[in-house]
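Quick question, first post here. What does this chain look like in 3D?
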Amino acid sequence: MSSHAGDGHHDAHAHPHRPTPAPAPGHTHTHTHTHGSHAAGADTEFDWEVMGPMLEQEAELNSGPYEEAARWIAALPTAPKVRRVLDVGSGPGVVTCLLAEVFPEAEVVAVDPTPALLERTKDRARRLGVSERVRTVEAGLPMDVHRLGEADLVWAGNSLHHMGDQRAALAGFAELLRPGGTLALLEGGLPTRRLPRDLGIGRPGLEARLDAASAAWFDRMRSELPGTKREAEDWSALIAAVGLTPQGTRSFLLDLPAPLSAPARDHVITKLTREYEVLGALLDADDRAVLERLLDPDDPAGVHHRPDVHLLTARTVHLGRRD
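> Answer (accepted):
Ran it through. Tokens below.
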């Protein structure tokens, strides 16, 4: 988070100490993190009145895979009674509230550095009737990890790769677990596919080239994080290296075939717009021209009208247990 293109919880890559900054070109941020236009910056760089609904929409579309993952964890024979959950990098709180539903006896704590997103979490919890069990904590990670308290489940949805020293950050998460507690690390998956390989306009393979541009963007973002250290992305091995016992890895599919619902199509349009803005300079002139056509609401070949637009991706969850 990997597709590096809008996959997940919030898919927000922007600040080195923030698991949930702004939406980006490809990773899908639990909950949903999305990449910002560069690796570091303040909340003022983003219009959260715009970004908040975008992240919320993305997380809602992915709620099926997230719920499947949460219920997998809840059904583990080795899982303890879950009384307290930390949703690290919670964004607008879609997954926070989902975790409150899957674990009905637990207090669920949304941890995020962005006050506007935490307000959306509170509003959502009130609407869904779980506000008595949902708390919010404004915190930047990993430096504020000591403020979060113990938990039976730490859910880190596409947030670890925002931290320069991922091994140290993961060790911090592990220390929060009570004996028998579970760490759910959402990293990796498959690149999102929304369009056919051959669009009938431009060169075939546009999304593959967007993937390559997003990977280059992601590498630059990682290189600019304070204290960044390269790690082989063997997440189960990294879980073991910080003293947890790996409990398995599973991927969960989001498969929305054509024709898309209006909300899903709107999401595709929003994400492609974001990718054009953030990745456009990494594409050649022909691909930029094709993206402009795809985003033109008056072009019959654009995503506003195409009958073949779909949404297909997979999110991968790696589990570790504190013995």
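The domain at 6-321 is CATH 3.40.50.150 (Rossmann fold).
Confidence is low (pLDDT under 50) at residues 1-44.
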